[in-house]
Fold each of these.
Amino acid sequence: MVGLGGVLGVTVVALGMVLTPGPNMIYLVSRSITQGRRAGIISLGGVALGFMVYLLAANLGLSVVFLAVPELYVAVKLAGAAYLGYLAWSALRPGGISVFAPQDVPPDPPRRLFTMGLLTNLLNPKIAVMYLSLIPQFVDLREGHVLVQGLVLGAVQIVVSVGVNLGIVLAAGAIAAFLARRPSWLKAQRYVMGTVLGALAVSLAVDTSGPGGAT
């Protein structure tokens, strides 16, 4: 079965990934601020389903497909890098808006909130890399039951990520109100997030490792 070292390792990786600004955080925060906590929680439900899709796909052979067709893996990775680059430019461009800045946008119905949360996660390159390259490194072949280990470790990641994102959803309004009273902090947050997203985009674009290699 899964050892304590594997569980702790995946927990650390999951925390590092979920606390790094990315598409999931941006979507959840923006919806929570503009439409309320209920909308943020519904969107988080879609994100959670996206995690489960990746968990099952990765453990049932998606990595084999990428190994057989490396061009597909490269295409997915470059598409993800382009998406992160777009998010970075949206934050850094002149007149850009912080993810914590209230915006006047039309409310989305629950089904659309859930679907957009799902698609945002499925198109999130960080999650693809984590399931295809990082989590498998904590599977101990000597323990056997590789499929069970992969599912358990993936479940650990889901619990950590959903828990942290739920905290972000519940706190988004308070954070937005805090930053609204401090315009310079709001601007700094936008630049920090944009820089991190840009660095992630460049790192993903220049990474030459294959689907089975470390990133």
Note: The chain has a mean pLDDT of 78.
Amino acid sequence: MSTTPENNTREVGKRVAFIAALVLVLGFYFILLGRIAVSLITSGSIPAAILGVGVFLLPLLGVWVVASSVRAAFAHQHLARRIHAEGLELDTSDLPHRPSGRLERAAADQLFEQVKTEWEADPDNWRSNYRAARAYDYAGDRTRAREVMRRAVELERQERTTQTG
């Protein structure tokens, strides 16, 4: 399948619809858990009330996880739009890909080494952090990718604050 802007837009639309549906299902689930928790708490039984408090914490934790994940996704998308507008996206079109669409391991590692040099030269620049996070992701190191992306988001936020303030 070729990656045309129309295909990319369609793919993004499908993903957004899927995520929205998941959030709605989770919201319904959290409401049900909350109702169960309230009925346990108001049942008059001390063990049931204690269990109800525990059950009530589950949807609160769930709402926090969903909200922080969606907030992070919006922040990452904001950085992706800025990187795209500045023409600084990592170009992987000429690199060898697996049938799954992922980069071949050797190509991903080579790309990471190139980006790592840029990142080490300017570690306090959100752009180099964003590119490093993407390179980590391509190389399969999701934990470091998330960590560096969080740093990129914070650095970009600081840059925006400094420019407007």
Note: The chain is about 80% helix and 0% strand.
Amino acid sequence: MKCVAYTIKFIRVKSLLLLSIVALTINVGYAQNFEFSNNRKKDAINMILVKNLIIIPVLINEKGPFNFILDTGVGPMIISDPSITDSLKIKDLRTIKIAGLGKGNEIEAYVSSSIHARVGKASMDHVPTALLKEDLFRLSSFVGMPVHGLLGYHFFKSFIVELKYSAKRIIFYLPSHGKKIKGERIPLEMINDKPYTKIQIESPELGTLILKVLVDNGASHAISLEILNKNPFPLPPVSILANLGVGLGGPISGHIGRLPSIKVGSFELKNVLSSYPKYEEVAAKVLVNDRNGNLGADILSRFDITMDYEDGAMYLRKNGNFKRPFQHDMAGMEIFMEDNQHKRFFIGRIEPNSPAEEGGLEADDEIVYLNFVPASNYSLTEMNKVFRDGDDKTVIVTILRKGDLRIRVIKLKQRI
């Protein structure tokens, strides 16, 4: 079944993962850490990296493994795919309301404290968990592979965690392991179980500003700027309207522009794509009053990172992606995949005045050929790359619309 109401766009923005789980309070007297057994102090696992998102295998109640996004931007573990809930045989489910970002209202979810989770050789009993009653995120459609949930705070606070984006490897160990941490130390402030840091931006219009941002490696964009001095963050002189994703509360819209310079510690990145969500859809619903925005994985993945929540710090080392240019979708449309087995690709929302709109594509069109190659020959990542690479390049798209095959010619354009 196609994803129509909640099509997801992570190409630039992870807005759907920005959660304000204001109603989730689980008071339990259990240990709240992942732990090793048999005096082990260290482990390592491979990661899958898709659209800058880290995907790892997680066993839940000794079933699985299930694919989870490892996400510094979430507190409680979130099971986003309700189809696995019954198989987990959870006994203490209760219903709460969750307030999320976007245009809509609160949604209902289950919570439980009887979840057992295992990552590599580490495990935790009684993981505070929210289980969505509906698959609002459609993560599998966005990523192009089955994804069942999000894991964040309780894993990161249990260990020192090395995110080796360059090697697609995660190493995690106890502080007592005694390993020397490499890289430049960036202070973190933990608020509501999430890490915040200070960055510096520069632009001709705003001058030099020090901003407080959520460190959110589960957001595939570079940076989202939401609020400045209790007002909507000013747009740059040049920006375009954009669909910025879907939150728990519904679609999020806004603008995309560029910042001339962002500094994280001593590291400077230039000409950075920046997202500016509508104030009423994001900033007005965020509980941290002095937060300016969100630092995402299109920046973070340019480093190999060590997270040390206990010491309130992350350590950065540049990797081979550091000088990668910041690119955006040059067609101006969402693409998502349904039916992982047969790989069917659909178009979601289309941005106004975009090449996709001008080329005659419409929401809900199924892409069946791309440059006369069957769509099933592509992965979702490969298909998105076609529409991100090559200003002024022509792409021939064969679509299925209401049973009819139609050919559309799209001329890609770097619009920002």
Note: The first strand starts at residue 19 and ends at 20.
